Amino acid sequence: MAxxxxxxxxxxxxxxxxxxxVSSNHALQRARRLFQAQKAGHTGTLDPxxxxxxxxxxxxxxxxSAYLLEADKVYRTRVELGVLTDSxxxxxxxxxxxxxxxxxxxxxxxxLARFTGExxxxxxxxxxxxxxxxxxxELARExxxxxxxxRRVTVYDARLLAFEGTAFEMEVHVSKGTYIRTLxxxxxxxxxxxxxxxxxxxxxxxxxxxxxxxxxEALEALPDQAALEAMLLPVDVLVAGLPRLAxxxxxxxxxxxxxxxxxxxxxxxxDGLARLYHDEAFxxxxxxxxxxxIAPRRLLSTAVAAGSA
Length: 309
Prior knowledge:
Layout: E1 12-18, H1 24-35, E2 40-42, E3 51-58, H2 66-69, E4 73-81, E5 83-85, E6 94-97, H3 105-114, E7 117-121, E8 130-131, E9 134-135, H4 136-141, E10 151-163, E11 167-174, H5 180-191, E12 195-205, E13 208-209, H6 216-220, H7 225-229, E14 244-246, H8 249-256, E15 261-262, E16 272-278, E17 281-288, E18 293-305
Parallel strand pairs: 3-12, 14-16
Antiparallel strand pairs: 1-3, 2-3, 4-11, 4-12, 5-6, 7-10, 8-9, 10-11, 12-13, 15-18, 16-17, 17-18
């Protein structure tokens, strides 16, 4: 007999405002307990020092987490000049202090411009990447350093928000896999004085804006389960960028049984993914093939209420 999963079958996406000083997993588990959810996951770890947008996926939404893991992100960060730390942030041990050259905002903007576009970035030791099965930050805590290959990332925009002579704030729009700590360190080296970050806040992940975030404290103040679930976005917002396809009962039934179905695909691309719906309920994803054939790709265990995308 299959083991019964504890909790409620909650499905949806929560835009959680992660507080400073806790891990992403701690924030996730706090939200999961509040919702009494059977299953939950998050998309894209934030360091304990960082705050801001942490999309938490409940239930069937977890099947589509990859679409946010691949997404671009926007951050706001404060960069302290003249001090290098072992972690690249204010929580690390100070390695070196350097004098800060006389800089203007124009000087700083010129350097930021050099770090936009495609750049090569060496991942920090204080990261969750793995080396021979162990996370880099675990090795770093033991005082170990291993060689890391540079990775190509994209900085779409790096905009100076404020400059105080010894520190500055910037907003950056980056591709997946970009480490803001490392970006700040590299900018500091280019300025000739080194740097680390003292604050980091994620403002956007893929299609999700920070304006929709809710804090754990605000969730705890809600009166009941219905009020909590009213804070969730529907599952299909995770794949809203894909074409939408409405199915009749026969086609929906075939796909749910793992079979292909034929129908007029209209303007849908051949060999492309599509969002599948029946009676306005989201069923999951299918792949459109030639001659109007659709095959199941990632379907929900049960249809869930759809959004307006």
